Amino acid sequence: MEWEECLEIDVTHAPKNKETAKALLKLCNARLEVAENIDKKKFPALLAEAYYEVIKELMTALLSLEGFKSYSHVCLISFVKKFYSSEFSNHEMEIIDKLRKIRNNLDYRGIFTGADFMERNEGKVTAIIRKLRKIVASKTR
């Protein structure tokens, strides 16, 4: 879904909120600490889920900083794709969306997938997280 469609359907305007973004950044730091303790060989889907939750919260923080609110994960991704295309490649956006799908399979269907994906992409995922954290941190100073 494109960002413009999201504005019509799943995104609402809200007051810009730097404090919410700071709180979400703090939450992400805690989630990352948990993710570091997951046995990635035994539970790759849980690692993917943990990383996705971090990314989702960071994208939510960016929306909060810009005065938007959305419960649609697809719209969070569309927002980053639209407004941060110079920071994130299409391939990185595809990785985020794949994490979303792995997380949804796990959370809504109990399907443990993603072992090969995480083996191939964990470094890219952590790089995406570092970039998002840096952007949110710079906007909350």
Reported by name, the CATH topology is: Four Helix Bundle (Hemerythrin (Met), subunit A)
Our measurement of the CA-to-CA distance between the termini, rounded to an integer number of angstroms, reads 31 Å
Biggest sheet features: 2 strands, antiparallel
- Give the beta-strand count: 2
Largest sheet, spatial ordering of strands: 1-2
How many structural domains are formed by the residues?
1
Radius of gyration: 15 Å
Beta-strand content? under 5%
Mean pLDDT: 96
Q: What structural category characterises the helix and strand content?
A: mainly alpha
Give the overall form.
Answer: globular
Q: CATH superfamily assignment?
A: Nucleotidyltransferases  domain 2
Order of helices and strands: HEHHEHHH
Provide a count of the helices. Answer: 6
Give the class-level CATH name. Mainly Alpha
Helix content: over 70%
Unreliable stretches = none
CATH hierarchy: architecture: Up-down Bundle
Architecture blueprint of SSEs:
Layout lengths: L2 H7 L1 E3 L4 H19 L7 H23 L1 E3 L2 H11 L6 H20 L5 H25 L2
Antiparallel strand pairs: 1-2
Helix pairs in contact: 2-3, 2-6, 3-4, 3-5, 3-6, 4-5
Task: Describe the overall structure.
With 141 residues, the protein is mostly helical. It has one domain (3-139): Four Helix Bundle (Hemerythrin (Met), subunit A). 74% of the residues lie in helices and 4% in strands. The chain contains six helices and two strands, in the order αβααβααα. It has helices at 3-9, 18-36, 44-66, 73-83, 90-109, 115-139; strands at 11-13, 68-70. A two-stranded antiparallel ribbon has the order 1-2. It is globular, with a radius of gyration of 15 Å. The protein starts with a helix and ends with a helix. The relative contact order is 0.19. The mean pLDDT is 96.
